[in-house]
Design goal:
By secondary structure, this protein is of the alpha/beta class. The chain is built from 9 helices and 5 strands; from the N terminus they run αβαβααβαβαβααα. The chain folds into 2 domains: 171 residues, Glucose-6-phosphate isomerase like protein, domain 1 (Rossmann fold, 3-Layer(aba) Sandwich), CATH 3.40.50.10490; 60 residues, no CATH class.
């Protein structure tokens, strides 16, 4: 068995590398500025609050808190009800509920001149916007990490938007574009009509064949399959609202 990647696996890696290169090319100065803001907070003996506005962005909070080699002054602003650990269809409903994000900022007592880093791959949902708005009202400094592609392409009347229609970047003292594509996934594999993000399927032709065939047969045989398939669509970026 060869240890070399398949052509599909190599293409997947190039897709990822391209995004990292784009971030380095366009966001290096913003990342340096973010580092400076974090250093200032550390020097001033302030907490660095870190918040993921819903879904898998909670992983960014986990990566910054209680890690070997990390900063001791990182304060995780956890909203357990808006993470995938709280069941997919449940957390999706909660992260679209206004007021919850502001409640978390109050609970964790984000103060005047504190630094708050907010992650959200889309940047429009209520738990993200409410948290940013509450933090800004309290005088906190905000580093926002989100997607300009989503900001430019999401329809203004889309159901995942906060009622005020604003984006996370609208509240930021410093914005970092994470190069996340509209729809979250943008790598296409033969046998699938939509983009996928699963590295296993990009590298194993047998997995692609069986998975693609299985999904096709399942969808053809299932009455009302769009409703059943909705959780997968949600994980792909909430673009589909059956």
């Amino acid at each position: 068995m060869s240890n070399e990647s398949s052509p599909r696996g190599s293409a997947y890696l190039k897709n990822v590398e391209g995004k990292l290169e784009a971030i380095e090319r366009t966001q290096a100065e913003n990342i340096r500025r973010a580092g400076s803001m974090m250093a200032d907070a550390y020097e001033q003996d302030r907490l660095i609050h870190v918040y993921g506005g819903g879904g898998h962005t909670v992983m960014m909070v986990c990566e910054m808190f209680f890690r070997a080699g990390g900063l001791a002054n990182v304060n995780p602003v956890y909203g357990h009800d808006i993470s995938p650990l709280c069941q997919a269809t449940k957390y999706i409903q909660i992260e679209r509920t206004t007021g919850y994000g502001a409640c978390l900022i109050r609970y964790y007592d984000v103060k005047q001149d504190d630094l708050l880093i907010i992650f959200h791959n889309i940047g429009y949902n209520p738990t993200t916007i409410d948290a940013a708005e509450e933090a800004k009202a309290r005088g906190a400094k905000i580093i926002a990490i989100s997607s300009s592609d989503w900001r430019e392409k999401l329809p203004r009347d889309h159901h995942i938007r906060h009622p005020n229609k604003k984006h996370l970047f609208d509240y930021a003292d410093l914005s970092i574009d994470d190069a996340n594509p509209y729809g979250d996934a943008d790598f296409y594999v033969e046998g699938f009509e939509v983009a996928i993000g699963m590295a296993l399927l990009t590298n194993d032709s047998k997995s692609v064949k069986h998975c693609g065939s299985g999904l096709k047969n399942w969808m053809e045989q299932t009455t009302g399959w769009p409703q059943i398939f909705a959780p997968f669509a949600c994980c792909a970026g909430y673009c589909w609202n059956p």
